[in-house]
Specification:
Layout: H1 2-31, H2 39-57, H3 60-84, H4 89-112, H5 144-152, H6 157-175, H7 177-187, H8 189-194, H9 199-225, H10 237-247, H11 252-272, E1 276-277, E2 281-282, H12 285-289, H13 291-300
Antiparallel strand pairs: 1-2
Helix pairs in contact: 1-5, 1-6, 1-9, 1-10, 1-11, 2-3, 2-4, 2-9, 2-10, 3-4, 3-9, 6-7, 7-9, 10-11, 10-13, 11-13
Amino acid sequence: MYESIILILDATLRVSAPLILAALAGLFSERSGIVNIALEGKILASAFAAAATASITGSVTLGLLAAMATSVLLAMLHGFACITHRGDQIVSGVAINMLAAGLTVTLGRYWFGLGGQTPPLSQGERFTSITLPGADAIADVPVIGLLYSELISGHNILVYLSLLIVPVCWWIIFKTRFGLRLRAAGENPHAVDTAGISVAWLRYRALICAGILTGIAGAYLSTAHSAGFVPNMSAGKGYIALAALIFGKWKPVPVLWGCLLFGFLDAMAIRLQGAELPFIGEIPVQAIEILPYVLTVLLLAGFIGRAVGPKSIGVPYVKSR
């Protein structure tokens, strides 16, 4: 029983990593006043860029850089539409999602001829697990050995990065001048403008931060969690990240717990496939797989209590004269 719990928690960390990164990306943009429903498309496009670049160059580092560059490029496209031209932020985000879904498959077929997939990545072309010091030595020690060797050790560097970046984001958002101005831009952009600070430039920088984080999330999917890109491999993770962002009420630590909750449900779904429960029998695979998405709908429908976002979120800013 104890071993099963450790294995489920281990899987939770692996599944939650891209959700944490994407949710924190949404935190930066939405704290500045920009709705970022385009997270899904950015994850998908950066996953393709990472796998394609790693496959062609043989370097997973270049793949990660390509993923971040692709995501930042889409973030700038989003900003150009809804900051510079004050377009509808939801429409712009949906357009980017559609663009990414179609373009990744088209380019994949043109470049690799594998039905939209990239070639399988070798060990040198992806992020592999890291064994922490002493993990093998204490693996057989009861309780502590399994906890350290399975749950704490054995993850790839992007999993550890996703956890370490949470306190960094908290510090940036709540303890720096940039974070203060960023939050002010989402709450009262006219006050920011009155202080002589460019609201547009603040929001562009927020989108750059969001693009970097979303690019890492996409690279994780194709070069760490999997060994290559397959069409639509983001599988709604951008939308689930948005749900976790609302669940966490736009605060980094609660957002982390929201992502871990979704990851735990996903890990449980994998673990319960084929299992038989008392008085119920074997649970259909489809019913298990749909659990995380049902929770997403429930959270977005407002079953978590009132979640009030930044006051100016989604509202195009018109500079006062």
